[in-house]
Amino acid sequence: MTSPSSTGSSHAGSAPPSIKPSNMPYEWLVGLRYTRAGKRSGRNSFISFISAISMAGIALGVAALIVVLSVYNGFQKEVTERMLSVLAHIEMYDVRGGGMKDWQAVARQAAQHKEVKAAAPFVETQAMLVHGSDKLRPAIVRGILPEFEGKVSGVTHLVKQGSFDALRPGSWNIVLGVELAKALEVTVGGKVAMALAQSGTNPANALNAAPSMRIFTVAGTFEAGHNEFDAGLAYIALEDGEQLLGFDGPFGLRLRVADTQRAPIVAAELKQMLAGGMLVRDWSKLNANWFAAVHTQKNMMFIILTLIIAVAAFNLVATLVMTVTDKQADIAILRTLGASPASVMKIFMVQGALVGVLGTAMGVAGGVLLALNVDVIVPAIERLLGMKFLSKDIYFISAVPSDLRWGDVGMIAATAVGLAFFATLYPSWRAAKVKPAEALRYE
Q1: pLDDT for 253-307, tens place per residue?
Q2: Does the chain have fewer CB atoms within 10 Å around its N or its C terminus?
Q3: What is 129-172 written as a DSSP string?
Q4: What Rg, from alpha-carbon coordinates, does the chain have?
Q5: Which of 253, 249, 12, 266 is nearest to 115 (CA)?
């Protein structure tokens, strides 16, 4: 780099604007020039190399954070969609016991809310399903009206064999999840026995009641793509369920709303609209533990990967400290030309911020490109390594999903630039404290 002293001693007492070769503030020009390696100085080249490493570290951290959060978002979106193919957006329960005798009236009342699109009655209980002498599995058994259930969930469209239309009152038919049917080793047309802990709803008889048994015919299987439902859920006719449980009506209502994200708000409004004795829960509360775990994991992953960006950003501290030490003579000459300590501080802040902005820009470009092509890149890596990252037997899904959200990208970019800018403060302050007389003593 050409020393600022080459501007001539005759200008020593001139104001800073006299050293501007363009309309750009001279602090920016000098800061940009310091970012480039000098051709004649090995030390400058080393400093520039450290700057490049810092820039690459920021880019790598930003890209990794974008990809990881996109995969988390995709995983949550995919599993939520599969859950909502079986779950209703909102469930209403009659907590007074004995069943919701006039569920049609309650459904009409709920339908007065402009965002409620459909309602379906249901009963639900836990039971043990038995096939043969040694095949038994626990399951959640849900009694439904197929013609209504199809309006609040997509399960009736997920049939692999048979049909939900076979769930007629008094038919004693049952539709099983595909994994549940596989575990019981039963096919359509086969028989399974359902064992309930007790029949009826009178708690006083609970200790003396023997388990009730009922034989069902398998009328079909469904596959929701979510192992929890495929391996532990079964459907029967609503009236059959009411008879088994001793209810005078359905256990409650399942509702579908126009916007799933507004379900918690709609549930709260319905609770205010409806008469007492109703428990209203939205889909996020039905699986609160799972959603809370995913949210916590996403936040922790953001914090952990942000530390990678922080480490790379704070490498700028060492880079700028070395630059300040190397450029003390230049700083002293700038001070004698009239540059203020604030202007000197700006020079090194420009240098550090430029590294942070460029690293962030490269990381955003790379991260967005990877996040948008995860569905292509991951299968290619799996084929290359001859392995499967997500086994369907273990995980909810077998493919790595991605859901890029620009809000996350903006937050990540702002965090990276902010950390880089923060890392420039100490070296820039140190440069502003350089005393011209001491810096030029041995020059």
Answers
A1: 999 998 888 888 998 888 888 766 678 888 877 777 777 777 788 888 888 888 8
A2: C
A3: EEETTTEEEEEEEEEE-HHHHHHH-SGGG-EEEE-GGG--TT--
A4: 34
A5: 266
Let me know: does 334 contact 4? Beta carbons within 8 Å. Answer: yes
- Could you please report the per-residue DSSP string of 241-272? HHHHHT-SS-SEEEEEES-GGGHHHHHHHHHH
Whole-number Cα distances in Å, 33 to 38, 327, 433, 436: 9, 12, 21, 21
Q: Where are the domains of the chain?
A: 26-80+292-440, 96-276
Q: Tell me the backbone φ, ψ of residue 391, rounded to 5 degrees.
A: -85, 135
Pair type for strands 278-282 and 173-177: unpaired
Query: Distance between CA 374 and CA 67 in Å, rounded?
Result: 8
Q: How many whole angstroms separate alpha carbon 403 and alpha carbon 71? A: 6
The residue among 330 and 394 whose pLDDT is bigger is 330
Spatial distance between the Cα atoms of 342 and 331, rounded to a whole number of angstroms: 12
DSSP-assigned letter for residue 100: -
Angstrom distance (rounded) from CA 437 to CA 443: 10
Q: What's the CA gap between 242 and 79, in Å, rounded?
A: 31
- The highest-confidence range among 136-150, 322-336, 376-390, by mean pLDDT, is 136-150
Contact 359, 62 (CB under 8 A): yes
Residue 219 phi/psi, 5-degree rounding, is: -100, -5
Q: What is the pLDDT of residues 10-44, one digit of tens each?
A: 444 444 444 444 566 766 676 666 665 444 444 55
